[in-house]
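RECORD TYPE: protein structure
NAME: Unspecific monooxygenase
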Amino acid sequence: MSEDSGSRPPGPHGLFGNQRAYQRDRIGFLLRNQREYGDVFSFSDVSTVVLDPALIQQLHARTNAEFASEVSMFSDKGRFERLLSTIPTTMAARRKGWRGVNRSASARHAARLVDAFDRVMKETGGREVDANDVMMRAAGFAVADFIFGGDGRDVAPIVDAVDRAVRATQVLMDRPYRLPSWLATPGRVRMRRGAQGLREAIADRVAARRDLPPEDGPRDLLDVFLESSPGDPEHVHMPLNLMLRAGYGAPGAALTWAARQLALYPEHARALREEAESLGDPTAPGRPLAEAFVKEVLRMYPPSWFGGREVAAPAELGGWRFEPGEQIMFSPYVVHRDPRWWDRPEEFLPERWDGPESPHARHAYIPFGAGPRICIGNQLAMMELTLSVSRLAHRYAIELANPDIPMVPQTILRPLGLRASFAPV
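PREDICTED:
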């Protein structure tokens, strides 16, 4: 603990605060202050940035205790307290859900996943398109099918509802300023309409499923949730809403980065194509080269590049005291490119994942977070990303119109504006 437990970690003090300097160059701001102040520094009177892997691991491990996941930008104290009260139920449903989807249901999902990926690629007609838009749609079909696809109904209406909800929310979250929650701006109205549309789409699928006769095993994740929470719609709707949102924007960004890297590194694309051809079945497991490629994409370009936790109870971390209402922020992007924890961190090297030894220092790889609030679909995301990247390398020729597009570290780290074409081969 620091000598003065009431003091705050050192940090920059801009003339008008640090927000403006951060907005001008978000990643550069973090790196400059890490060099000057170390791995723990104050961003404001209520926000602290932590960039040490061991401390970030502690922060994750103690989530649901002293720390809680970040609250929505439009939340109030009452909603924060309600969120905390739902954590035990939500966590129990998550654990049961991932265990409950059996192998046969997952295999059927994998087959539909590949078909849906080809469907989205076919929609592009080989034309130059916004790569992130296309990959977000592909990711949307993947998560919607895993949750709702087992009854044979088209999941496109769910994908469209998620798209509207996520895009409306993301526009507001990407802005460098926050407006009062009571102000009914056009953007906030769109966000609320999108959220309501998604709730209604989920409710429609849940109601339709309740009318179907049960089967011997789960058809998809919805069956598992209905079995675990038969009498409480909120305990079904809320986690499914979170999963759909989480499985859309970030995996879509990861697929966009993967498409870019496949085009920039044709030697890796050839290796993945040969791996896919040797397996024959596009859904067969055992794709170590594709999995290593995905891991390296997530290392260099983690979509959730900057996150944080709310302090829910008085806590100590790294020798500093924190009080309820404060925030502790961390950056997987910075940790993933720190030469103290990685060899040659600025190089794209999927082969670093080939050997039996870990290619990084302990706790230094966190694309999905860690601890009890690890990303709600990390295993699903890895499976879907691996199959999708393998399919992309195997069946499509990628041409980039603007490969040098800069990173945009907003809510999600993505190559905003990347234009590409995907021609069948």
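COMMENT: Residues 186-210 form the longest helix (25 residues).
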